Amino acid sequence: MRRVRLMKVFVTRRIPPEGSAALARAADCEVEQWDSDEPISSEDLERGVAGAHGLLCLLSDRIDKKLLDTAGANLKVISTMSVGVDHLALDEIKKRGIRVGYTPDVLTDTTAELAVSLLLTTCRRLPEAIEEVKNGGWTSWKPLWMCGYGLTESTVGIIGLGRIGQAIARRLKPFGVRRFLYTGRQPRPQEAAEFQAEFVPVLQLAAESDFVVVACSLTPATRGLCSKDFYQRMKKTAVFINISRGEVVNQDDLYQALTSGQIAAAGLDVTTPEPLPTNHPLLTLKNCVILPHIGSATHRTRNTMSVLAANNLLAGLRGEPMPSELKL
After folding, report:
1. What pLDDT does 5 receive?
2. CA pair distance 55, 31, nearest whole angstrom
3. For position 221, what pLDDT does the model report?
4. Is 293 assigned a catalytic role?
5. Mean pLDDT of all residues belonging to the chain
6. 53, 87, 280, 293: which is the annotated catalytic residue?
7. What does the pLDDT look like over 186-231, one tens digit per residue?
């Protein structure tokens, strides 16, 4: 009997068990995995991808022209365990006829929950309050001590009213938000109707919002979108939240806005770079809450993402329709 040639699959990180199990069941694939929770080095990534037919990667893996050249002509499918694809050299990938799978929708609710959690944590100064309890700063009840800002009767501006932006608005509405604003590439009247959200230019959104939530994709148009001019338009009592990509924000300008009192506070789940160096100036500020990019970090969501990424990869290798294929 002629031996069936197996397709080589390289996985760039240890992934949740349900995704690993889906790959292990694939009798037509030989799976090699970087068996660590820590990022793979560029040298090991090049070694692993050489000759591979399929690659399952994460958003922290830079898939560029050099790596694609190293992979060679066998590479037919790249499946990323993320909704963002700014780490992929899409023009090069398209040129080579490589199919791309990604994981939209499955992390929408989890990321929206995190965005609301981060907003409340930041505007009500929870990390400061916890620290005061621990260090003895809590001496008595004081009328003006640890006061923050509430959502009732507020205006919330959302940059990017996509799936996640809508899910954030849906969760904030019951808090008594008076008005929603949004901005993006174009008006989305059908989606905005649920929240009676108004489409406005980005600087008007900055000027009129009590809370600004960034939930857009990283594109050439959004890179550096939130910079000095943006913060100067914001209210001194405004709170800025970013759960999209770090490069949408000019962090030096944000630092200046926070230290000068131009805005009240900021909460970031994404930074540039990631991880943020422990000596970064933003980490010295009490009015800046920074999380380690945990928007989708629930057991259920990460397992679901890993299964979708695995199924995208296997379908692509077999020439079948992917559950979630990025059309290039």
Report:
1. 73
2. 10
3. 95
4. yes
5. 96
6. 293
7. 999 999 999 999 999 999 999 999 999 999 999 999 999 999 999 9
Which amino acid makes up residue 308? Answer: L
Question: What is the rounded (10 degree) CA torsion for 282, 287, 288, 294?
Answer: 150
Strands 325-326 vs 99-101: parallel, antiparallel or unpaired: antiparallel
According to DSSP, the residues that pair with 156 across neighbouring strands are 180, 211
The residues pairing with 180 across neighbouring beta strands, listed in sequence order, are: 156
pLDDT at 281 exceeding the cut of 90: yes
DSSP for 143-190, written as a single string: TTTT-----TT-EEEEE--SHHHHHHHHHHGGGT--EEEEESSS--HH
d(CA 242, CA 213): 6
Angle of helix 108-123 relative to helix 163-172, nearest 10 degrees, comes to 50
CA distance 194 to 77: 38
Burial of 32 (0-12, 13-18, 19+ CB in 10 A): middle
* Ranges of H-type helices in 248-291: 251-259
pLDDT at 2 > cutoff 50: no
Q: Which residues pair with 249 in a beta bridge?
A: 226
